[in-house]
Specification:
The structure is a homodimer.
Chain A lengths: L7 H6 L20 H10 L2 H5 L2 H14 L5 E2 L6 H8 L1 E4 L3 E4 L6 H6 L10 H14 L5 E6 L1 H10 L7 H9 L1 H25 L3 E6 L7 H17 L4 E2 L2 E2 L2 E5 L6 H5 L5 E3 L6 H8 L4 E6 L8 H15 L5 E5 L9 H15 L5
Parallel strand pairs in A: 1-4, 4-5, 5-8, 8-9, 9-10, 10-11
Antiparallel strand pairs in A: 2-3, 6-7
Helix pairs in contact in A: 2-4, 4-7, 8-10, 9-10, 10-11, 13-14, 14-15
Chain lengths: ~350, ~350
Amino acid sequence: MTELKNDRFLRALLRQPVDVTPVWMMRQAGRYLPEYRETRKKAGSFMDLCTNPDLACEVTLQPLERFPLDAAILFSDILTIPDAMGLGLYFEEGEGPRFKTPLRDEKQIMALGVPDPEQELRYVMDAVRTIRRELHARVPLIGFSGSPWTLATYMVEGGSSKGFHTIKAMMYERPELLDRLLETVDAAVTLYLNAQIAAGAQAVMIFDTWGGALTPRDYCHFSLKPMERIIKSLKRENEGRKVPVILFTKNGGQWLEAMTDTGADALGLDWTTDLGDARRRVGGQVALQGNLDPSVLYASPPHIREQVARVLASFGQGNGHVFNLGHGIHPDVNPEHAGAMVEAVHELSKPYHE
Amino acid sequence: MTELKNDRFLRALLRQPVDVTPVWMMRQAGRYLPEYRETRKKAGSFMDLCTNPDLACEVTLQPLERFPLDAAILFSDILTIPDAMGLGLYFEEGEGPRFKTPLRDEKQIMALGVPDPEQELRYVMDAVRTIRRELHARVPLIGFSGSPWTLATYMVEGGSSKGFHTIKAMMYERPELLDRLLETVDAAVTLYLNAQIAAGAQAVMIFDTWGGALTPRDYCHFSLKPMERIIKSLKRENEGRKVPVILFTKNGGQWLEAMTDTGADALGLDWTTDLGDARRRVGGQVALQGNLDPSVLYASPPHIREQVARVLASFGQGNGHVFNLGHGIHPDVNPEHAGAMVEAVHELSKPYHE
């Protein structure tokens, strides 16, 4: 095992002391970067880019060349698992992801198999191994998966959804069938994340993009419980080091206490929750990651700096904060503005760690 | 003043005793009803329907013919005010509302006038008067407006928005300019709601559809403060009766305490907050309105009944609850399912009022 040159991110997730607050950005490898758009053109389709480990590695490293980020995140899509289950993922320009054969009846759900990550999802594991090698221990690599509930919404709706009509009809009408689907997805996510850890991911994050569309009761049952089962089954140590788990439910600010009880090391927060309030509520049991409104990056650097200062001040003195946006960086953001944010975080956070 | 035949709704908003929990549905006059679709066809465009007081009255009363609802709500659009300000509202099929001349520079914002409700918005006041007459005091009539922040998002973005890029850039870059815009809209909403009250609205509701897209700090400043100014300037008594004010911020479950301090009589809740928790948090200072997930209506009547029972149980014994969906009824819901919900509320809520 090579010693990490910069382990701030991992230390902060475990609430250990750091010199400055570590920072990365959700979707930091993405369309706002001209070099990403170049590689994407070279690759062909979006899935061609995801399934090519060398190109996936290339785009993963691009933001690190530009900005002194404290973590890299695997470039991939959250829908690789349902694709490997045979649902036929494809992308329509400007339409978002779609599945050729969404799950519409009981028979399909009962027949669903759990993919072997080193077979059907080998391209993801190869990307993890390639990125780890090419990172040369500069910063840690984050692996990730969508949450079972989030994956299930796409699998049942057949793509992005505004109202989640089909899956919610199933939830209220046939809850046991949805439970069955979630158990299968849950098993698949567990294998997938453990394989990413074995392949070299040094932290993992579960993206629960759509848990916030549920009632508190349904969130606990259909989104949080499956995530908790996954967290309890993860390999939490590798290469002699702890592998922290980050749980992020978009619009989940009302449920932080319940999320804390899952055993996650850190919770991701969007910008609708005050970081200081969240810190008091989780009572030092978990680290917090977030939570600048991504739209702040439309403002000019001095205003970005001002808003970064606010987020840092709201967390306050001490350990356990990873700075991030509250959601993925917008594709039409000026990359220099992202740079201004990263710089401001490192510079302005020093006093909070003295 | 004619005595109301059914005043449960007004009594519940003021936390007075009722025999059963009153119920109405956001967008109860709407596309899920075949008779609405008929009138809409007859009217021509959506705005033709809104601006015709007789037809607006007709669709307002349609759901009351079908279901024993405890309130009627004025049929109108939330964007009538910006339209009257000269922004040129129009609707593109499947695209939602658009403005011909969105606000893009300081000059436009400084030049914005406040419409006289009995002039430029006379068609709305005429609709209120017509509906009041045709209701024959069966149930109270609710007037409404969009919140200043919500109206401003459409005015600046030029229509519906996913990320609110333009207005958020203004918010972070030129907060004083946004303040100025909100003050103008705020004055317009105050006049508009007071005119609706004078014309016969017996309760008013402020729809803050997009306040939940803000940070807690920005929500307080740019959305809640303008709403509080409005509430403090409303005529709260008319025809010898109190005119209750309902405040609804979608995705505002984290800010109920602050919302309570505005002086509103009741808060609307979407389904992401537990009604019982909300009740404890607001400590009997306001009534609560909500909060069934509108997608429950995709399930069959026995399952609808089950979920209605859950919402009633979560509020529990006593006064101060108006049953509603947590958001507008979906256009593809079977009207019989809406009926099953209304029936279940009246039937199952009796024990909570004994």
